[in-house]
Amino acid sequence: MKHAPVVLTLPHMLGVAEEYTALIDGMDPDPERHQIFVDVEPYTGTPLNGGKRVQFNMFLRRIDAIKLTDRLQPTLFPVIWIDEGIALNEDMVKLIDDSLMKVLSLLDVVQWALIGVGLLLAVLMPTVYFVKRCRGDSSRSVSPAVTATTSAASLSTVAGVTGERNK
């Protein structure tokens, strides 16, 4: 790493080893202010707010041909700090709230209502079945009726007779 022309770090060299920051005054890394962050809406994954913060650094070293650098200790020196960010404006946040969040709230209510109806039916239907069965409700039983138009062949089929004689 010491031979890289440019080294990319977080601002104020947040997270860099002490050996690189010991010779630089004014480095005050604060994780709250200097980290990369993204705030995401949990249901849709829409980024609401975000920031990318980086710092470009160069190694300062002694150069034999330049007498001024004789006493220079190798150190990592900050050159430029870039802070980019984005935040949704009020109109976009309102659009997400109106078109999505209200629908999701309504769907949440509908979901629990349908679960309640399903549970009610799961309890009610077996209860109705067993109550009707215990009463001996025979009004639904079907028995074959003999009418004037019924043929002998159809009666033997209904009665379970195949028409073959035992010999």
UniProtKB/TrEMBL annotation:
Alphabetized UniProt keyword annotations: Cell membrane, Disulfide bond, Glycoprotein, Membrane, Olfaction, Receptor, Sensory transduction, Transmembrane, Transmembrane helix
Subcellular location per the Swiss-Prot or TrEMBL entry: Cell membrane
InterPro entries assigned: CD36_fam
GO annotation terms (biological process): sensory perception of smell
Membrane spanning residue stretches: 109-131
GO molecular function: scavenger receptor activity
GO cellular component: cytoplasm; plasma membrane
A Pfam family assignment: CD36
PANTHER family, alphabetized: SCAVENGER RECEPTOR CLASS B TYPE-1 SR-B1, SENSORY NEURON MEMBRANE PROTEIN 2
Biological role: Plays an olfactory role that is not restricted to pheromone sensitivity.
Family membership noted in the UniProt record: Belongs to the CD36 family.
Protein name as annotated: Sensory neuron membrane protein 2
Species per Swiss-Prot/TrEMBL record: Anopheles epiroticus
